[in-house]
Every structure is written in C-alpha cells, then in structure tokens.
Amino acid sequence: MGNAKLEVLGFEVPISLFSAYHDDGFVQDVYEHTRNLNRFYGTSPNIVLQEIVDKTFKDKVKGSCRVGRGILRKHVHIYYLDLGNDYENIEIRAHEETHALSKFGRLDLLENALRAEQGVDISLDSLDPEIVACLGELYALNKRHLFPHGISRDGVNINRIKASRLYHQKKMQEPAP
Ligand SMILES: [Zn+2]
C-alpha cells in the first residue's frame, strides 16, 4: 500500500500496490500531454477516438485525469493548465483530483469531508462524475474561504451550476443558538 496525496483537496488516499498516482502538474497544452501519455501507455481504438473528441475541444480543455494501463499497475495521471490565478488554479486542480479520487474508488473521503467540515450532506455515488468533480471544486474553494462566484471565462458551465445548486440545497441548517 502507498498513499496518493491529493494536494488541493487535502486528502491522503491509501492505494493498492497495483495503482499509482501521478500529479503531472502544469502543462502547456492538455491535449498534447494526453497524446504523449497515450503514446507512452499504448493506443487502442478507443483512445484514438477520444483523441479526436479532445482535439475538437482542444481550446476548452483546462485539465484532465487519465488512466494509463501499465503491465502491473494502473496509473492515474492528472494535469492542468496554469490559468494565472489561485482561484482558477485551485478550481481546476480540485476538479481533476476529484476525478482521480473517483478512479481510486474513494469518493467516500470527499463525502465525509463535505459533511464534517462544511455541513453538506450529499451522497456522491449516484451522481454524474462531472457534477461530483464540480462538488470537489466547491469543497476546495470553500475550504480556503474563496467563495465560488460562478463566473468562468468561458461563460456558463452547466455542471458547475448544478453542483452549486446541490451544494446549497444539501447544506444542513445551522443549529439554532
Ligand atoms: Zn471533469
């Protein structure tokens, strides 16, 4: 067993010997990094197809979480652009870390932290993975008292809006004084 350190979420996740976590950090171009990883781990028809999709959205993609299959282990990689400010950098990194957490099968850690630290009681397992990743963003931002303003440079992000609505719906009432 080792630990995967998810820096922005602040979780140390115990992972099996057959898994590895790689935070590749800032990259110049998310799509190119994905392509390099795919070359390294080997391509399959699915990957080639995914690359076509990614290329189409090349300018919109700010980060990614990919799993590469090694001979013995599965390698979970996250990587993201430097967006030039703490707010967005925390947001995108928390998003990708949450995808990684999900790939390690440990969304319970986020679920517990949301409940214990922020009074938000949400069951994550049945939600769309993109909404879960946006809840990870909200967790990381609120943890730092960076209050999500819901505005992003590419305008409306529907998953973020859904996550934010859910976050506020599920926030337990403050106990009466
Ligand atoms: Zn995502």
Short account of what is shown:
46% of the residues lie in helices and 18% in strands. The chain has 177 residues and is an alpha+beta fold.
What attributes characterize this protein structure?
binds zinc ion; alpha+beta; three-stranded mixed β-sheet; 6 helices; globular; 177 residues; 18% strand
Write the layout of secondary structure elements.
Blueprint: E1 2-6, E2 11-15, E3 19-26, H1 30-41, H2 45-56, E4 63-69, E5 74-80, H3 86-103, H4 107-118, H5 129-143, H6 158-169
Parallel strand pairs: 3-5
Antiparallel strand pairs: 1-2, 4-5
The protein binds zinc ion.
Give a description of the structure.
The chain is an alpha+beta fold and 177 residues long. The protein has one domain. The protein has six helices and five strands; from the N terminus they run E-E-E-H-H-E-E-H-H-H-H. It has helices at residues 30-41, 45-56, 86-103, 107-118, 129-143, 158-169, and strands at residues 2-6, 11-15, 19-26, 63-69, 74-80. The protein has a three-stranded mixed sheet with strand order 3-5-4, with helices on both faces. Strand 1 (2-6) and strand 2 (11-15) form a beta hairpin. Helix 1 (30-41) runs antiparallel to helix 2 (45-56) and helix 5 (129-143) packs across helix 6 (158-169). It starts with a strand and ends in an 8-residue tail after the last helix. The model has no long low-confidence stretch (mean pLDDT 89). The structure holds zinc ion. Zinc ion is lined by residues 95, 99, 130, 133.
